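FAQ: What does a multi-protein file look like?

Like this. Sequence, then tokens, then the next protein.
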Amino acid sequence: MGELMETILHRRAIRRYETRQIAEDALQQILQAGLYAPSAGGRQGPLLVVSQDRTVNQRLGRIKRANSHPRMATATSYVSKEQPSIADDPNLRNAFYDAPTVITLFAPKNFLFSAEDCAVAAENMMLAADSLGVGSCYIGQGWTAFADPYGQQILKAWGIPANYYAVMQLLLGYPRVGDPHPAPKPRREGRVLRF
């Protein structure tokens, strides 16, 4: 099996991070993977905004958590048993799980494939991160982190064009020491149909 396939099979969402910041050379490789992702029409629309400011990340993560109303887990329906998500654990107050690096992916509001372009870039970055020993977690509905006056101030400070919106966040950090790597779930049968 090739290295790429091994990375694909190994990669999991990581929601528990060490406090130390990821290495700059690793971050640059991860960003390059995102910049080289396919995009509809080759437009290269997504903006990748990197925040390594712990105060900003914690505050935006709390705003996002306050504006997220996912159905909480039940005994038989949950996101993860190994590393509970904000959908699983109402005690989690930061939707960014205290990740040291948060990349917000912004895209044009009025382009049909904005969300898809961001998702492809995020997947490239998650695979690159895993190959470098960096954990990652994709967080959807990015706009909810900016749904209050502080969030709006941050958008202005970052110079985000008015015709762009936050599609998602990608969390990056080294997996917390001592935590086991999440186990893969068995693949469900019947998902590939061939004719």
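And here is the next protein:
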Amino acid sequence: MTNYQSALLRLMNDRGYIHQLTDADGLDQLAAKTIVPGYVGFDATATSLHVGNLVQIMLLRRLQQAGHKPIVVMGGGTTKVGDPSGKDEVRKLLDDDGINANIASIRSSFERFLTFGNGPTDAIMINNADWLDSLEYIPFLRDVGRHFTINRMLTFDSVKLRLDREQPLTFLEFNYMILQAYDFLELSRQHACRLQLGGSDQWGNIVNGIELGRRIDGAQLFGLTTPLITKADGSKMGKSVDGAIWLNKDRLSPYDYWQFWRNTDDRDVGRFMRLFTDIDIDEIARLESLEGAEINEAKKILADAATAMAHGDDAAKNAASTAQKTFEQGQSGGDLPVLEVAEEQISMLNALVDIGFCASKGEAKRMIAGGGARIDDEPVKDAGAMISIADTDIKISAGKKKHGLLRRAA
């Protein structure tokens, strides 16, 4: 069904978010007549989310834009277990202090995308440790575990793929899908949550939660999943050749975030505008039809809109200005990452590592050997080269896209 009556499903459909719906008619009718609280769960495995999580954040943003209530569920409890979906190995387990620190750091990202508060459509953030940490094992197995069969759990992709690859799947991880299903039950009870949203890899977990709510409470719950978001070249969204594209500016500068979007493949421009910006659909249709050099202007508009959403208008303007100065005018833009150097000299290897352009000195050596390392646009060919730090900024580059400044520490 695509002739939706509710603003929610029309918006989701028009912008390309819908992959699977558990009950399209039922959800459409519900969303057309009342406010629907819906949630997405995020495990707190790092101090920041990244672009790979962004489509799920945007789902909550669209939910709020359509007049419904977003619930951000931070996995303070489930992070201790680890979601096996899409993983080849056991996740490193964190303690409570590490998880809570990550949740506090992650919250700042959501505040850019959602309006939090106490109103009927204001977003709320809750921690599933509030109910999972207090569960008693035997009562939980008796009351909840009896609704799950091992036979069925073995058919879910998150389990099946690990077993097919002969990768170990711990009993701890095997319980993840039960805990996630229980989250939906608790959210239904505590916050009248009717909808769970997630990526296509979460379909089995979402269906489990819907069935658990029906069997135990007789609740009518719904699920919506997005298609797997990949780039035109088939690579995973949220990754670059240099690693994750983090949302927190302390993990990735707004300039580098802007550059990620600016370097979008021509074939992805329209799709990414629909998914990751608020640009009007008709304007997107015009921009994605541009060809040749004009498509680069569309990419800048995409980069501006995505960066403004994640980091604010000023950060987007500064990033765009820096890019123009650096690439179009040959100057050193003011928004480039800066490494302050206390000594009179620094080795090229240390400079590349300390500014974050290379993960190790070995990688820096390979960058130099390949001719990708430059000082003030002049190639550096000697891995043992030393850089003298003067009173004026020195431009350091790694490859075509990474540029920064070396500056004498005050």
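Q: Is there any per-entry metadata?
A: Some entries carry free-text notes. For the entry above: Residues 86-90 have pLDDT under 50 and may be disordered.
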